[in-house]
Amino acid sequence: MTSTARGARARARIEVTAAIKEEARRQLAAEGAARLSLRAVARELGMVSSALYRYFPSRDDLLTALIIDAYDSLGEAAESAHAAVAQEGPRQRWVAVCTAVRRWALAHPHEYALIYGSPVPGYHAPQTTVPAAARVGLLLIGIVRDAHRGPGLADLPLPADLRPEAERLVADLAPDLPPAAGAALVAAWAQLYGLVGFELFGQFHRVVEDREPFFRHAATRLADQVGLP
Amino acid sequence: MTSTARGARARARIEVTAAIKEEARRQLAAEGAARLSLRAVARELGMVSSALYRYFPSRDDLLTALIIDAYDSLGEAAESAHAAVAQEGPRQRWVAVCTAVRRWALAHPHEYALIYGSPVPGYHAPQTTVPAAARVGLLLIGIVRDAHRGPGLADLPLPADLRPEAERLVADLAPDLPPAAGAALVAAWAQLYGLVGFELFGQFHRVVEDREPFFRHAATRLADQVGLP
DNA sequence: CCCGCCGCAAGAGCAGTGCTCTCTTTTTTG
DNA sequence: CAAAAAAGAGAGCACTGCTCTTGCGGCGGG
To answer: Does the keyword Transcription feature in the UniProt annotation (chains A, B) (predicted)?
Structure first.
């Protein structure tokens, strides 16, 4: 039905949609999500603003499309960085993925802010974004799971009051992982984004100057924290 | 000069300024920074919008005032939580401060987003905010420094390429701290905000459900990471 | 004591925003 | 080929931050 261009009309629709997203992404990268304006996008594309609503019913829908693209772009960057070191040990792979996330964030600050900064108020991400959002997470889970199949995965502490939650968590995410590792993994995942966010949003200004080795070391210690050998 | 009300005029100015901030804070808490409108604030206060510019020359200046207040409120929450356990060990004090930060963030999500979420594009925090912003950091530094004076502070790893940066860092922040502890402290500080931010911004939705013990455990492991006994 | 000045408020206005509605043109489809 | 669906154009609404001009009224210096 909606697949490959049944007519010139459908093909044009795909092209215009892509052009809108492209221009919107340009404005997002240049000015940030708050300054992204439908009218400005339309103006730049030589169309009238109301015409744009035929393609995206609201500004939030455009933002949602950009969010999914951003998640995908980040996921792809992480995955290709991981593929390049797939033969190495879990630690190297972990650090490689973390480094890729940081590098992508530094290269696309506004996109990163869009997906991992404070959500635009009033806006609630629809379920559509979930698969794209999960890509980096799945990568990290895979690394820890692989490590768990091999030797040397450290024993991690797990307080009694956290055990039920940790068991539920690994049941959903990675059934072959010990609960303590699952909990540590999720915590490390959040902490990774704390490190990246602080650097990106200027919190390290005049505190950390040489940020590359600092991040590398922190990422390595995160690997410790999830018990990677 | 600018001190205690030289006349009724000056007193009124202080009161109106306070009323503006109060109403702005209400709107911030209810709707978030992006939806905070000068005109709406003025309307609610029964004044015309242009009059408000006599008190805050721009929307950004109002936001800056709210940011400082938010930092102060968070700092005070953390400090009073710390004071309540000042007699206990470094771990307990560390976890108490982390917990207070989380609790404050959950109680004031939009304020938290304002200071630790993605910065409003085009807006750059003036130097005025720095002292208020530093309060929680100073608290954490103090805990680690105290621990370092006592026994049991763990030896932390420090890669060679990070040493110069770590030395510079402790020279600025806490000269009596070993460089490795300083680097670990800054990393832990960032990671704390990663944990809080992920929970607050919905990234843990359907992943972590029982968040209180989860956070508690993660904060405890952060204490490990900075070598607290 | 009083007059002039300055702080303050009010109102109009500018340029911009998201979004809706109607009207016309163009293309697809039964 | 005619009816229906899709797309574009343009006007318009309610809102935003911000500026400018115009008046009013309390305060300080002569």
So the answer is: yes
Q: Which stretches of chain A are DSSP H helices? A: 8-31, 38-44, 49-52, 59-84, 90-107, 109-116, 130-133, 135-149, 163-173, 179-200, 211-225
The answer regarding whether domain A66-225 maps to CATH 1.10.357.10 reads yes
Domain boundaries, chain B: 1-57, 59-225
Chain A residues in contact with B221 (beta carbon < 8 A): 157, 184, 187, 225
Alpha helix ranges (H) inside chain B? 8-31, 38-44, 49-52, 59-84, 90-107, 109-116, 130-133, 135-149, 163-173, 179-200, 211-225
CATH number of the structural domain B1-57: 1.10.10
* Cβ contacts of A209 on chain B, cutoff 8 Å: 165, 168
Residue of A nearest to B156 (CA): A221
**Nearest nucleotide (C1') to the CA of residue B6?**
D27
What's the pLDDT at A5?
A: 43
Res. B203: pLDDT tops 50: yes
* Span B18-56, pLDDT tens digits: 999 999 999 999 999 999 999 999 999 999 999 999 999
The domains spanning A1-57 and A66-225 adopt the same CATH topology: no
As assigned by CATH, the class of the B59-225 domain is mainly alpha
Model confidence at B141: pLDDT above 60: yes
Q: How far is B5 from chain A (nearest CA, A)?
A: 37
